[in-house]
Amino acid sequence: MADINSGTKISASAIGDGTAVPGAAEGGTDAAWDIIELLFFAYRDFVGDPDEVLLKYAFGRAHHRVLHFVNRNPGMKVADLLDILNITKQSLGRVLKQLIDQGFIVQKEGEQDRRQRLLYATPKGEALSLKLAALQTERINRAFGELGPGAHEAARRFLTAMIDGDNREGVLRQIARADRAKVR
Amino acid sequence: MADINSGTKISASAIGDGTAVPGAAEGGTDAAWDIIELLFFAYRDFVGDPDEVLLKYAFGRAHHRVLHFVNRNPGMKVADLLDILNITKQSLGRVLKQLIDQGFIVQKEGEQDRRQRLLYATPKGEALSLKLAALQTERINRAFGELGPGAHEAARRFLTAMIDGDNREGVLRQIARADRAKVR
DNA sequence: CAAAATATGTCAACATGGCTGACATAAATT
DNA sequence: AATTTATGTCAGCCATGTTGACATATTTTG
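YS: structure for the whole thing
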């Protein structure tokens, strides 16, 4: 049942049979065990989809993330990518170098600021990025198909609300900007 | 469902291996870029919450996952934990040993089958597990608070639908069983 | 203009947490 | 008695994260 409660007391309910579970409540608030665990399993399966394909290229999830965001944000600065991925430039450098050497990403000198190395996916890089996104989209669409209409909107609202308040605006702007950039 | 997400079509040619995309009768389905990226950012923030606490114990996310599931499933077998985590016993062994040595988890010989080493969180282990779950629950409840009533149910349905069909039943059973087990 | 700040790259070393393969032990099953 | 199962362990490799130090080119600033 929907039990988003008032005050500090939150009750988790069991999956499946709808049995309410009275909480142990040491601190007065029940942990949202169901969401915590569903998120774990859902995310595990979600990121697992592309693994098989990545294996054929001898790439890992780190490469996937880099390629994904570069493809989605053509001409992005290295610094922006670092911000999104939340890793150090040394960590990024390792996988980025491989993606560049193998022709999935190219760098162009910035026009206004020639210190910048703007990142672009090559056609080859775009193809791989799309292939991986297609796999994940398949899962997402299957889920939305099982649920009723409005599921997409509900999922988007939920996931957005789960993001840090500080980042949320930036993330939404980034997604909107990327959508525009890829329409052209 | 058609606002942010429009633009790049996924087509068989772009995918390259001829994989059919469900619902792509007229030459392509939009990749669900928004959900893909929101899931990435939401999960990143979600698993990041406990990191600070874990640092104080010199533990990582691997320890967190092990402690979490052991606490939620008192008396579970090592083999079951391996199934849930999808890692090798050698990988598990490393972190499990530390959790045992430092008194967060204990093992008891199985009663019917004395080869088994059933896993239990100690009071100390349970306390840490709850502390970490409370952090994540805080984020979840904040999100549900921002969204209307029904958000919990909607999120649960979405996340459930995102899980592999094969595992889904098992996951739901596991969550339900754990909920009962923790009611003592 | 000289100095400082910025964007990026690189080298070296180290930590975490995956993996494979081989082998060991005790207990249950056949 | 032989085999299978549940678990543990040693050894080494790999991917990907970290810190710290330093280099280079370019832009910004006093």
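YS: worth flagging: Confidence is low (pLDDT under 50) at residues 1-27 of chain A.
IM: good catch. Also Chain A touches chain B through 80 residues (CB under 8 Å).
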